[in-house]
């Protein structure tokens, strides 16, 4: 396949470079590929049609654009920026609340919760619901990461107040369902009894939020141990263009790792981990790796630690910080005693053992000796006060 550059396509089609870039970002050109930071466009590609002119030829009226759900809500999550240009994208934004919220998002997803808290706090009572809502969401999870649980609870309460103060339209209910669904699933809490079905609120979300909501849906199915259906959602969502939205794409790839490790398909798990890492590393968007460590089945130790040891250390620091706050909400709310005094390596080893992996299988996967695995398991059993590895499951995450 021969490819042409954006500039060559613009010249061939007699349109601007910027419009070609827009067509690429929207996925309106068949067969396009990403080469680093540049687009490769098939040399025989056809110029996309203007929807308005297409409707004139067909005799139909162009459909009215769907109203955007809270314009400005989580702008970074909902933007298809190029990996490596996240900060540039934010800097190029017009000064104002949207830019500040995007910066708070960046600081949260890059493992800098203290900065995210400072930036989001300024908008907790902002008049515009989109920015107030975004600020509360970022503030809640950032405070969870630094162990300030009361501040996190306050922000979640403000979200409910924001929703209650808005007109009950389908789009408002969609955002409410998105937030409630995400909060419950990511904290591993039971879903509310009255919950808008996902098939009703997903179509009302803009593309980036919809991709993240599908990650949450896949995560929910993972917790239900329906790994095949979960990974099917991930593969389909990525195949339909969600990989253009870096933040949702990272989280989608990570839940695929969780699924494939549960299915003992380590090659597929590694493929998705490296795909997530390729998206995240240029912008240092490492928060998700730390948040998911306990569910990744030792994959960070097997892949990231040998290749990127310094990044691995920072990810593990995020893991300790986030998991401590996570347990303070999860354990009291569910009555489950998820282990809280294990090292990350002990936890990863115990997770695999709880899933039925043998010491030899764990050793080969994590690039350590079977004797070392046995020592880790013995230490874990001693710390948890149990005698048999069959008892590990009740102390481990699903």
Description:
This protein is mainly α and 398 residues long. Among the domains are: 3-57; 294-398, Winged helix-like DNA-binding domain superfamily/Winged helix DNA-binding domain (Arc Repressor Mutant, subunit A). 62% of the residues lie in helices and 3% in strands. It has 20 helices and three strands. It has helices at residues 6-13, 17-25, 51-58, 86-92, 97-109, 113-121, 129-145, 149-165, 170-186, 198-201, 207-223, 227-239, 246-262, 266-280, 287-292, 299-307, 309-334, 344-354, 359-366, 370-384; strands spanning 3-4, 33-35, 38-42. A three-stranded antiparallel β-sheet has the order 1-3-2. A hairpin with a 2-residue loop joins strand 2 and strand 3 (38-42). Helix 11 (207-223) packs antiparallel against helix 12 (227-239) and helix 12 (227-239) packs antiparallel against helix 13 (246-262). The chain is globular, with a radius of gyration of 22 Å. The two termini are 44 Å apart.
Topology:
Layout: E1 3-4, H1 6-13, H2 17-25, E2 33-35, E3 38-42, H3 51-58, H4 86-92, H5 97-109, H6 113-121, H7 129-145, H8 149-165, H9 170-186, H10 198-201, H11 207-223, H12 227-239, H13 246-262, H14 266-280, H15 287-292, H16 299-307, H17 309-334, H18 344-354, H19 359-366, H20 370-384
Antiparallel strand pairs: 1-3, 2-3
Helix pairs in contact: 1-2, 4-5, 5-6, 5-7, 6-7, 7-8, 9-11, 11-12, 11-13, 12-13, 13-14, 16-17, 18-20, 19-20
């Amino acid at each position: 396949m021969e490819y042409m550059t954006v500039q060559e396509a613009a010249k061939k089609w007699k349109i601007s470079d910027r419009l070609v870039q827009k067509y690429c970002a929207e996925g309106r050109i068949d067969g396009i590929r990403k080469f680093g930071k540049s687009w490769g466009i098939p040399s025989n590609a056809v110029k996309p049609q203007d929807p308005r002119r297409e409707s004139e030829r067909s005799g139909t009226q162009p459909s009215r654009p769907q109203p955007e759900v809270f314009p400005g809500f989580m702008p970074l999550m909902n933007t298809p920026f190029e990996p490596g240009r996240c900060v540039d994208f934010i800097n190029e934004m017009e000064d104002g609340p949207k830019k500040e919220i995007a910066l708070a998002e960046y600081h949260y997803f890059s493992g800098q919760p203290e900065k995210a808290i400072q930036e989001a706090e300024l908008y907790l009572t902002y008049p515009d619901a989109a920015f107030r809502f975004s600020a509360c969401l970022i503030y809640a999870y950032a405070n969870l990461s630094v162990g300030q649980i009361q501040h996190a609870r306050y922000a979640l309460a403000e979200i409910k107040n924001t929703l209650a103060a808005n007109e009950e339209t389908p789009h408002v209910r969609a955002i409410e369902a998105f937030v409630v669904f995400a909060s419950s699933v990511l904290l591993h809490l039971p879903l509310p009894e009255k919950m808008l079905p996902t098939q009703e609120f997903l179509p009302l979300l803009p593309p980036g939020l919809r991709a993240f909501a599908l990650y949450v849906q896949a995560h929910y199915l993972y917790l239900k141990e329906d790994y095949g259906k979960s990974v099917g959602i991930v593969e389909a969502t990525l195949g339909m263009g969600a990989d253009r939205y870096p933040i949702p794409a990272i989280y989608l790839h990570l839940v695929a790792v969780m699924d494939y490790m549960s299915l003992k398909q380590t090659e597929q798990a590694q493929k998705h981990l490296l795909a997530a890492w390729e998206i995240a590393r240029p912008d240092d968007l490492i928060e998700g790796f730390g948040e998911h460590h306990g569910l990744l089945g030792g994959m960070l130790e097997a892949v990231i630690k040998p290749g990127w040891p310094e990044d691995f250390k920072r990810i593990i620091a995020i893991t300790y910080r986030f998991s401590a706050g996570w347990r303070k909400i999860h354990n009291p709310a569910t009555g489950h005693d998820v282990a809280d005094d294990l090292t990350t390596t002990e936890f990863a080893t115990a997770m695999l053992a709880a899933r039925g992996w043998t010491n030899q299988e764990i050793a080969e996967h994590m690039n350590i000796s079977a004797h070392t695995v046995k020592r880790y398991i013995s230490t874990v059993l001693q710390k948890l006060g149990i005698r048999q590895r069959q008892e590990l499951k009740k102390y481990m995450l699903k």
